[in-house]
Structure formats: structure tokens, C-alpha cells
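Quick one:
INPUT:
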């Protein structure tokens, strides 16, 4: 199921972090497609399986994400950036869980993760266009239809 995920990585003037990020993906998530979008005018120096798109200098994060999503051909997309660390076993487990949740719950459109364990931001957003966005926070320990 993890082969249904494309990892979209945005970068700007941080080739060292990008190199570490891509090495982590190659080591722990070789089944995932990778798309890299950059707007820093530095020639790509990577020879991996990633698809690369260079944008005009300082185009911005939104432009990079929009162009990157157009290059995705898998069912699911993980939006990341060059400082994501995919070198740990937990990163593989997280991407597998992302694919599992999305595959088993077709009504779910977005799955988010925890940022370095800082705080409890677990919850759901319900969006009705033109009406409201409702946020429901979860308490630690509560089970949901989407929890393991």
C-alpha cells in the first residue's frame, strides 16, 4: 500500500538538508515515488529516482506545491520539505499509517502527523464550503474510527 504514496519535497537553498532527506527516503521508503520542487536556481545534483522541477527564483512554497502536485501520479501525496527526516524507522511507520488510514477511510481527505512530539494537536477538521470549518480536538487516549 505504501507504493500508493508520492513524497513531495519542496526545497530552497538547503542542499545539505535535501540530500539527507532524499537519502532517508531511498533507504526507508524505496517504494514511494519522490517529486522535488525547487526555486533556488541551483542545478540539481541528485541522480536518484526523484522527479525534479525547477521554478523561477523565489517562486514560493505555494507555487512549488502546486507544480509538484501536478507531477504526482499516485493515489496519495505526502507534502514535505527538505528538513523532513525520513532516516528513522518511525518515518516508515508513519507513512505506512498515512496510507492505511487513507486507504481504509475514503471519506478522509487529509491526514496530518505530529511535529517532533511537540504538543497534542490531534483532531479533525470538518469543512463545508461557504458555511464553516469546525475543529474537533481529541484528548490523548481517546479512540476514534481512524485510530489503531
Amino acid at each position: 500500500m505504501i507504493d500508493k504514496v508520492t513524497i513531495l519535497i519542496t526545497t530552497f537553498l538547503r542542499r545539505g538538508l535535501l540530500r539527507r532527506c532524499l537519502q532517508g527516503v531511498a533507504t526507508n521508503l524505496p517504494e514511494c515515488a519522490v517529486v522535488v520542487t525547487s526555486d533556488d536556481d541551483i542545478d540539481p545534483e541528485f541522480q536518484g529516482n526523484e522527479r525534479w522541477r525547477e521554478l523561477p527564483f523565489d517562486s514560493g512554497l505555494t507555487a512549488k506545491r502546486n507544480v509538484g502536485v501536478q507531477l504526482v501520479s499516485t493515489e496519495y501525496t505526502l507534502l514535505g520539505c527538505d528538513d523532513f527526516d525520513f532516516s528513522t524507522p518511525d518515518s516508515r511507520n508513519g507513512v505506512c499509517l498515512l496510507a492505511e488510514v487513507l486507504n481504509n477511510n475514503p471519506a478522509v481527505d487529509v491526514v496530518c502527523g505530529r511535529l517532533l512530539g511537540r504538543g497534542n494537536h490531534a483532531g479533525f477538521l470538518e469543512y463545508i464550503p461557504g458555511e464553516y470549518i469546525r475543529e474537533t480536538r481529541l484528548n490523548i487516549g481517546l479512540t476514534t474510527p481512524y485510530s489503531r
